[in-house]
Design brief:
mainly alpha; DNA-binding; HTH_TetR; Rv0078-like_C; 0% strand; DNA binding
């Protein structure tokens, strides 16, 4: 990679890191692009060159956080005895992430308001594809009831996402979490053979 390409990648990482901090602390609407670029000693031109606009920058931050959430879930499922247990833990991990203040603010509260329906985000589509592959395997091995894999995947991911949204907007997220997890487990257990 050339020096110029390295510098551009470093600039992009710096902007995302500063934006992530600002979006988490102040929220999307109260994050100032002028302050953000000043904090990283760049011009607004560098921001717009790399991300197009504030919404593009926000989408890049959401993408980064979503990828980290996926990696966290994968790490938690590595020691699972079987695919079913892994599917349960993956969903539970996503729901538990609703207690993280950064995820609450950026992904669950501001994300839908700025980027629209989360089920249409590219990162969510990757999660859906992964869930569909697991569901297909679980049906093939007889662990899950015979259902349409795509429909089951949409319902599983939707249940985890909506549980997380509910927790994030709840006046008492700590109290809502165990209720959401219990309901999620009951819903998934209904799909088990």
């Amino acid at each position: 990679m050339s020096k110029r390409a390295l510098k551009m990648a470093e600039t992009k990482r710096s902007i995302i890191a500063a934006a992530r901090k600002s979006f988490a602390e102040y929220g999307y609407s109260d994050t100032s692009m002028d302050k953000l670029t000043a904090d990283v000693n760049l011009t607004r031109g560098a921001l717009y060159h790399n991300f197009g606009d504030k919404k593009g920058l926000f989408a890049a931050v959401v993408e980064e956080i979503d990828l980290e959430m996926v990696e966290k879930a994968k790490t938690k499922t590595e020691g699972c005895d079987n695919l079913w247990q892994g599917l349960m833990i993956e969903g539970q991990t996503y729901i538990e992430s609703a207690l993280d203040p950064e995820i609450q603010r950026i992904i669950l509260l501001d994300g839908p308001a700025v980027l629209g329906d989360p089920s249409l985000w590219p990162s969510q589509n990757r999660c859906l594809l992964s869930t569909k592959q697991i569901v297909t395997q679980l049906i093939a091995e007889g662990t899950m009831k015979e259902v349409d894999p795509e429909a089951a995947s949409m319902l599983i991911n939707g249940a985890a996402m909506n549980a997380s949204l509910w927790i994030a907007s709840n006046p008492n997220p700590q109290k809502a979490l165990p209720n959401a997890l219990a309901a999620f487990n009951v819903i998934l257990s209904g799909l088990k053979s």
